[in-house]
Amino acid sequence: MRKxxxxxxxxxxxxxxxxxxIALSIVFILVKGFNFxxxxxxxxxxTASFNKTDLQVGDVRKIFSQADPAxxxxxxxxxxxxxxxNSNTRSLFDLTVKQFYNAAQKEKLYSAVQSVAAKDNLxxxxxxxxxxxxxxxxxxxxxxxxxxxxxxxxxxIYIGIRYRFVFGIGALASLAHDLIITAGLFSMFxxxxxxxxxxxxxxxxxxxxxxxxxxxxxxxxxLKKMHGHPIDEIVNVSINETxxxxxxxxxxxxIVVFTLFLFASSVLRPFAFGxxxxxxxxxxxxxxxxxxxxxxxxxxxRKSLAKR
Amino acid sequence: MRHSTIRITxxxxxxxxxxxxxxxxxxxxxxxxxxxxxxxxxxxxxSLLEYTFSGNITPDTANQVVTILRRxxxxxxxxxANVSTLGNNGIRVEIPGIDNPQQAENLIGQRGELxxxxxxxxxxxPVKPAPKIGLQxxxxxxxxxxxxxxxxxTWYLVNRNIxxxxxxxxxxxxxVSNAHAAINTSTGGWEIDLSFNAKGAQDFYQITQALVGKxxxxxxxNYVLSAPIVQQPIQGGRAQITGNFTFKxxxxxxxxxxxxxxxxxxxxxxxxTIGPTLGSDVIHTSIIVGLIGIAIxxxxxxxxxxxxxxxxxxxxxxxxxxxxxxMLALTHSILTLPxxxxxxxxxxxxVDGNVIIFERIKExxxxxxxxxxAITAGFTRSTAVILDANISTLIVAFVLYYFGTGSIKGFAxxxxxxxxxxxxxxxxxxxxxxxxxxxxxxxKYLPASNAGQVQSVNPVQKNVNPEQKKGGNKK
Lengths: 308, 475
Description:
The complex is a heterodimer. By secondary structure, chain A is an alpha+beta fold. Helix content of chain A is 66%, strand content 13%. In chain A, the strands form two sheets. In chain A, strands 3-4-2-5 form a four-stranded antiparallel β-sheet. Chain B is an alpha+beta fold. Chain B is rod-shaped, with a radius of gyration of 35 Å. The chains are: A alpha+beta, B alpha+beta. At the A-B interface, helix 4, strand 5, helix 5, helix 7 and helix 8 of A face helix 5, strand 15, helix 8, helix 9 and helix 10 of B.
């Protein structure tokens, strides 16, 4: 006989914990907001490299704001140095400002920065340059919103076709749970929220649903097999039977995306962050939220069937 | 059964070889390991430019602009450039391999409006001179010269209605049938040779006849390219724009003239330029991260599922990784940075199919089935779950493909290929391997074996908390 962990017994405690965390996340999102990337907010992000490795953020700010006053308030982050073409190491900085630079303005900025840096015997190079106008940012925000709405609708239709209605509600609740908490973490840790973050959140929806679907199909199977047993027992047995699968898959996925988060470049960091913590909440929710909240509905349904 | 297993084995081996040669470049030292997979701008470097239109926009505008820009960029030797529409009122231009898009931007941003004009006056001035009053100046405007052979800040007062006899004539770019860069035999610099169509040739003859001894301005996008003095009437419909151009300048200008007018003005709304250094640095770290991830997952599966099943899962993971790379090469899908993230994510997900099957096989063994029967039942009962679970992620991948921009599309592509590969490797590849391995797999749950083992089968459950239910499973 296998040992069983009682997941459904203290379900109200876990639902309570989740509701608290969700409320906290919503507060963070509303009060602190998101650290939107330039593709969402508009503005310019420059990755600049210098031929001096011990350069600090303050030095870079001085150079750039002399060339263009807009950079006095720029957000500047020092990145891991890179090895250039002639195998000399260059320090790397990400600079973000709210202004949009067209071709001529960019050229002017570049030559101004180069001439200021040259006074300090520094060689500066723009390794990457991204500038997004308010218009382009607005249209990206809009298409991301549509993508999110359509993903949710399609996933619901899919669950609706494959499972009973109550399962759809359970799945939706756990998706909302994962999405809000992960978005809250983006706000809390002030991680850049850009289009790769959206890709992470949407992938997370698919992933979390994947987890939930495996448990649900086991519940469906056991509802037939364990006819006559109390619903909470059936649900608990199903969670336990799929537990090692849930943990193994989540663990391997977490390992790879977390490695990516630790070592990846700034471009992939928002994605890796969203996936890493999303996998954790997704696993938690498919064990403690998605299935336990079905119990009430399934019991009601069984009673109404018994009356007939 | 035996026959079909052998047949499928052959197919799997052939597929493996095909995928390997699709992916593996002939000359990896020259092209890099990903020589057969087209890399996105965010990896190999290049520029992405997005423009919106202003002016009179019709439903056809976007396609017209795309056609014109394709010709311009092609003509100016940006042969790898890719121009696509962004809905009705915008376009996106992607040019790989350049790290200063200024020249390309000049080429894209110009309307390409060419006309010939009569020169009424010439002035050197740092600012635009005041308009001249008088009947003979009606319709004339001051335009700055871009001709390097005249002093800087030279302004020409030009009128596009050229006085010919009692009336006026207009001659513009639409009468030009061809333009190309050519060597100027007398100065050795580059010039642009123009040919006119029949009407243009006739008009040009009349204009040059009227303007002998006077300058004729050639105006492009409101700049005077050059204003040579007409020596004699020119017949035969050919003209040269001499202006001491470099080869590149002459070539770009010829391309601009040939491709004709843009129907609208283009405004830059987004630029993204990535130098090649950054990209190669990033792909380097990504490969290392991917390998570390694979190594940990391989080790984990071996430890958790033991040498036999662990090996099956590991081989499936390697098979699927190669499948993804081969499919990327086969479909010429562009590998972007988020695309690499998609591949890495798939490494984590690939084992899912195997985990579902292995757990099921273990359960079937617990009910007392022989290993062979348990394997068959395990696969049969897992198929629906595996399909169900992966379809949800596929739906997301499709939506991301539809709505995503360049690099996110790359993520959607690798995710889709990865999921299809996952389904295939779990249901076909692992199945065949398990069939081969089944004689070596022991059912430790059969009464003959040591009952004490059962407890340690699932290490996760060692952390069971004390409030566990007793005897829950009453099958």
